[in-house]
């Protein structure tokens, strides 16, 4: 496995200390890390789930718009940040590996590294309904 | 390829009888290729004595800066090569999103900090943003990658004839790691250091000192040993010695590291003037 860029390594370290759920995607669309608070939202420990390619992600984590209507993958904040290289935010429903639906606010931004390198994207989730994030 | 340490001190020059063996000059390492090519890693105060060894018929020098902290550029204005009209001097430094390398270096190489303006230097000077990838200088393979240290900072791997020297003078790969060393994939500098014949690496602190300087961009010697082991380096040279550490302290740090575990590589305390042949 090649070494990740330093910007991604530091993003992962940073995320590991936060109490809000954070996803980190590599530039190839692989989910390369999510932190412990995100495990509560997604329903599985990262150590068990491991790094995931985008295609696999789409089959495991289901998302809809807030009213339950279908949501294209391209409309997800993390994908907008990743593919369009701009920040994005929206409220959506997500069903993680534990089968539970949760309403979350998702904010994402691209990771733009030194030397004009596009390295991936970060998404931060805030559970929108009472009940806490675990 | 021959590697010579001209300055091993970190942060600030620390001359004096108590530092005479490890040396008081700041970061500067000479790498000579098999055909006499001259690469200079960093331009700390050690570059001044190096200047005295320049061959009269030398036509090109490449200075590879890891970053622009003062202890890595302070000697630049005293590099005799900059005043030789026939000499081609190439200076490479990490890219910035805001200012060209020339503008950043000119902050130091201009009055009031320095009496000579860069544009008045007689040598044929060319400045390059270092590519964050593999490239070649005079037939020597160079790889540069950004590493964990405050501000844009790169490490270098220079290879020739199947041998590699890796230079990571300011590096804190343990920063934020829950346990260190972690997986290679998530360890800063790993790709550069992997299987290095010589790894010249930051070892500024004792573990007790590191605990009080987390985030300053430097490593404890035990963390550096762990990093070298992870990277399967063959020889590790301690570098960027703390200006408060005299020769006796540095000897003790190296001895403690050797005693702490059976090391799968040769651990060498980086002393000014030491030469390694590859």
Question: What does this molecule look like?
Answer:
The complex is a heterodimer of chains A (134) and B (278). Chain A has helices at residues 6-17, 36-42, 46-49, 54-60, 77-84, and strands at 22-26, 31-34, 62-65, 88-95, 101-113, 117-127. A 6-stranded antiparallel beta sheet of chain A has the order 2-1-6-5-4-3, with helices on both faces. In chain A, a hairpin with a 5-residue loop joins strand 4 (88-95) and strand 5. Chain A has a single domain, classed as 2-Layer Sandwich (Beta-Lactamase). Helices cover 28% and strands 34% of the residues of chain A. With 278 residues, chain B is α/β, with parallel strands linked by helices. Chain B has one domain (2-277): Ribonuclease Z/Hydroxyacylglutathione hydrolase-like (Metallo-beta-lactamase, Chain A), CATH 3.60.15.10. Helix content of chain B is 17%, strand content 26%. Chain B contains 7 helices and 14 strands. In chain B, the strands form 2 sheets. In chain B, strands 6-5-4-3-2-1-14 form a 7-stranded mixed beta sheet. The N and C termini of chain B lie close together (5 Å). The A-B interface holds A 1-7, 9-10, 12-14, 16-17, 113-115, 117 and B 94-97, 129, 131-132, 145-148, 152, 175-178, 183-188, 190-191.
